[in-house]
Amino acid sequence: MFKTVLFPIDRSRETQEAVGVVVEIVQKYGSRLILLSVVEGSEEADEGMESPDVVARLLEDAQSVFKQQGIQTEAFERQGKPAFVICDVADEVSANLIVMGCRGLGLTEEGVTESVTNRVINLSPCPVLVVP
Question: Phi, psi (5° rounding) for residue 100?
Answer without folding.
Answer: -135, 150
